[in-house]
Amino acid sequence: MNVPVVENTPPAVMGGHLLVQCLIAQGVTHAFGVPGESYLAVLDGFHAHAEQIQFVTCRQEGGAAFMADAQGRLTGRPGVCFVTRGPGATNASIGIHTAFQDSTPMVLFVGDVASDTRDREAFQEVDFGSFFGPSTKGMAKRVERIDDAKRIPEYVARAFATAMNGRPGPVVLVLPEDMLTHMVQAQPLARIEAVEAWSDPGALRRLREMLLQSERPFVIAGGGGWTVQAAQALQRFAENWKLPVGNAFRFQDTFDNFHPQYAGDVGIGINPKLAAHIKSSDLIIAIGPRLGEMTTSGYTLLTPPKAQQTLVHIHASAEELNRVFQADLAICATMNAAARSLEVLTAPNTLPWEAWTQAIHADYEANVRPQALAGLPADNEAGVVDMPEVIAVLQKHLPADAVLTNGAGNFASWVHRYYKHHGLVKGHKTQLAPTVGSMGYGVPAGIGAAILTGRVVFTIAGDGDFLMNGQELATAVQHGAKTIIVLLNNGMFGTIRMHQEREYPTHISGSYLNNPDFAALAKAYGYAGVRITRTAEFEAVLLDALARDQGTLIEVMLNPEVITTRGTLSAITAAALKT
């Protein structure tokens, strides 16, 4: 008797719906974007699966891409962004560039022209392979076009794997609009997990020998790919070997800033004493960072191609090792595997550098103590706000798991220098800041973090920085996200003005700003808006913001001389003016 064979054939589904099902299979709960007619079938898929995944409607593609970047940093899995062809993709490119240089996993989906109009310079057509150009100098790790809807599961799975494995980064998938409407019989592939690359045992033995031969070792930790477990293992390694640990530029939550072995932020405006310690170190162990221009103070703390210090460089991508700095020992390992390997290296009972570590931490503590605003009027005069005291109030009242975000500008130096992160070692990523120096990042990244986590989110912005993506306050209100924004209004592009006063002190041009009433603008969007001019006003306003159900923008009227007075930012401004 012949038994009929029953084939488990999936039902036919439209390509756009299949794509959404693939995202759900990868664990995606939110996708950020600006709707476009080129991917209407995907939007219909979000409608069909609204209980499993939410499409967050943003106001500009750059803001949407920054929210996806924040998603990638917070979750360790690719942030997801959808934009339309041409203008939508070019607007989103700032987020791709940021994710690439900051090593953030992300997938950007771009709706494209229909297949039968391709290569005719059709409406808003762009050659995305050339535009995003995957290379060591490009903006994406991979750029692919899906021409066959049946292969959507393959392309999505590969995009997630590429974004997470090795050095994390962005992937671009191009979606012809006609492909998305094809009916196909296909199913999503299983959830992709990042592959762990373990340290070579022989290299670990060599590293231990190098430590035993050292007198002044120093650890620089940062870069992408860190998990809570990796951060905790790093702390145990540092404690076992009594090592001083500095966090790479804008990765200040990698190692607990309250730890007695914390050395400080190795980034823009580095504490001069910390810079001197790094230069005099005889062994640098860099775990995770690329050792780029900002972390190395313009390639002066370590000088390429061969640093004066003995260099151990641990990175998840073999392509990054020995690319700029020739390391004395290069170890290709993911951060979780590397840290867990390091924590089991046995240390001797006594180490010759314990006093060195204690001195470095003491220098850090001295550098974060508020200093007088030299050369400025007294604090009781309007416009002279004591920003170190403002940061102290934030430290006092923000919960330990609060997410802090910022874009780029002189204003960010206040939180970078004075705010202490418990960070990943306590279970939460708490800093979202672009190492690439993208203005306009902080506001949308904060909104994305609020939507994703529900935690307290604090953003510091400048007047020029805010107006690049301030429209996303409408996104926050629409999706019920609450953030607290402190906007420092000094009527200028502060960083540019600082450099102008160094290079062309009598020819100030293009850096003045004629600003709106930011508090009133925030109210128009549905945020609470408050303006302060004195330090003493800030604490009560912050407490009100924390208690309020809606988001709050606190406009701080800041004396323009704050950025140009050496005593104000001390080492921060002084170092920047010397470089």
Q: Please give the order of strands in the largest beta sheet.
A: 3-2-4-5-7-6
Do you know the CATH architecture of the largest domain? 3-Layer(aba) Sandwich
Q: Give the overall pLDDT as a whole number.
A: 91
- CATH C-level class of the largest domain is Alpha Beta
Radius of gyration: 25 Å
| Helix content estimate | 25-40%
Q: Please identify which CATH superfamily of the largest domain we are dealing with.
A: Thiamin diphosphate (ThDP)-binding fold, Pyr/PP domains
Shape: globular
Strand content: 15-25%
Q: Helical element count?
A: 21
The largest sheet is:
6 strands, parallel
Reported by name, the CATH topology of the largest domain is: Rossmann fold
What is the β-strand count? 20
Describe the model.
The protein has about 575 residues and is an alpha/beta fold. The protein has 3 domains: about 15-185, Thiamin diphosphate (ThDP)-binding fold, Pyr/PP domains (Rossmann fold, 3-Layer(aba) Sandwich); about 200-365, Rossmann fold; about 370-579, Thiamin diphosphate (ThDP)-binding fold, Pyr/PP domains (Rossmann fold, 3-Layer(aba) Sandwich). The protein is built from 21 helices and 20 strands. The strands form 4 sheets. Strands 3-2-4-5-7-6 form a 6-stranded parallel beta sheet, with helices on both faces. A 6-stranded parallel beta sheet has the order 11-10-9-12-13-14, with helices on both faces. The longest helix is centred in the first third of the chain and has 15 residues, at about 60-75. The termini are far apart. Mean pLDDT is about 90; it is low at about 565-579.
